[in-house]
Structures are given as structure tokens and as C-alpha cells.
Amino acid sequence: MAFDRPVLARTPGLVFRRLLGSGRGASTSLGADLRRWALFAVWRGERDLDAFLARSPVAARWRDEAVESWQVRLVPLASRGSWGGVDPFGPLGTGPAGGVPSRGGAGRAGAPGAQQGSGPVAVLTRASIRPSRLVAFYRSVPAVDALLREQDGCLASVGVGEWPLARQATFSLWRDAAAVRDFAHRGRAHRRVIARTRGEDWYAEEMFTRFAPYGSTGTWNGTDPLAGLPASPRP
User: Fold this and answer.
1) Can you give the three-state secondary structure of 34-48, one letter per residue?
2) Rounded distance, CA 108 to CA 163, Å?
3) Cβ–Cβ < 8 Å for 177, 69
4) Which of 82, 84, 137, 213 could form a disulfide with 105 if both were Cys (CB 3.0 to 4.6 A apart)?
5) Which domains, from first to last, does the chain contain?
């Protein structure tokens, strides 16, 4: 991954990028899975993404070395916060995101051409955890993990991160927007954690983004979690 960074920095049309390691479980955990990684990328347009997949030596090496890979194309529906001090999406609707909220940060909603209906939803939550709040954060993880496993509307999820422990994110796929709302508002463990993050100021920076998936290829743990579900219209 370290060798890929300078190549990605020179990739035409790649507006925002983060190479991410992953945890062992379905969400954020202290353990790391050293064989699994992810690229979260925001592209200027569909042609730039297609050119990267067809011609980039990075994409070619990943295909050659991976025993399994999965890619999803996403269009952001709503986002709040920032990542590394910037809004990765700018005005929503300007281009696709591909790959696998800060207080006072930017917020966007209503991407042109991306209307959320009854189809699947992808959610990315990302935070930089204050060092003084790391113990409280990781003590809260098991209860939220247990709640996540009970949600029949959750199709798949994975914990990812830029740095061990302190810069963490969770990417999840849901059957529809109603399943996301059910997890966010009805689960007592999740509501309690959300209240503590705000009341005790756990995060130096955070971002929450909701996407409509409009295309996926490959497999994730042996299957495509979006197979058989209605895709959103292409942006």
C-alpha cells in the first residue's frame, strides 16, 4: 500500500483517495486483517475511473495478487463533515465515488441525478478519535457490533482505517434507507454511543456519508452482497 500512494497521487481524474487497512470483524475492532485492504476514491467522472481500472499498474497488480476482490460504484446522496480537513465531494453530483461529521464541517444533500428510492444504501462513517477518548471508544465497540449483527437489513459491513486505533471508519451496505434508520434510532446501544460521542467530544473530526450503489463487481466473502437487488440509476 505504501508503494501505491505516489502512483495514485499522479492518477488523472482522481479527486480524493484513501488507502485503508481493515479490521478482523464486521466493524471497527482492535485487531487487524493484514490480508485485506480497501481504496476509497472520488473520481472526476466515470471515464477516469474506467481508465484507471483498464490501464493503471496499481489496479492490474491488485487483480493479479488478490484471491478475492469486490468493487462498488456509488453516488453520494447526503454528506456532512470532513476528511483530513476537506469535503471529499464538493458540490454533490459532480462525479462517482468508488472503492469499497466534523463540528462546523461542510454538509451536502440532494445530489442531482441520485434520488433515493427503495433500493440499497451504502453508509460510510469516519472519525479521528481524540487520544484521551480511545479507551471509551473501544469499550463501546462490542455493544454496537452485537446490535449490527442482529440487523437483518445489514447486507455487509467492514471496519477500515488510515491509522491504527485513532483514525477509523466503517463501511456498510443496507437493504434500504428504512433499515439504516432502524439501526440508527431504535438500537439503544447505538443511541447511547452517539450521545456519548457528542457529550464527551470523542472526535477531533468526523464524516458521515450516505450513498446509492449503482454497480458492483466481484465478491465479498464469497458473494456479491448487492446481487439481486435493484441498482440505483447511473449518475
Assistant:
1) EEEEEEEEEECCHHH
2) 26
3) no
4) 82
5) 23-35+69-217 (3.30.70.100)
The 8 Å CB, 24+ separation contacts for 196-201 are: 196/136, 196/140, 200/133, 200/136, 201/130, 201/133
- CA distances to 83, 88, 127 from 208, in Å: 10, 11, 9
- pLDDT string in tens for the chain (235-residue length): 778 999 999 999 999 999 999 877 666 666 678 889 999 999 999 999 999 999 999 999 999 999 999 999 999 999 999 999 999 997 654 456 666 422 233 344 444 344 555 799 999 999 998 988 888 877 776 666 666 666 788 999 998 988 767 788 889 999 999 988 887 776 666 667 677 777 778 888 999 999 999 999 999 999 999 999 887 887 7
Cell of 166: 485513532
pTM recorded for the entire structure: 0.82
83 CB burial (10 A radius; 0-12, 13-18, 19+) = buried
Per-residue cell: 173 = 451496505
* Length of the chain in terms of residues written: 235
Q: Where are the beta strands (DSSP E) in 32-148?
A: 32-43, 70-81, 97-99, 107-109, 121-129
CA dist 220 → 72, 84, 120, 141, 217 (Å)? 11, 28, 16, 23, 10
Q: How far apart are CA 55 and CA 78, in angstroms?
A: 31
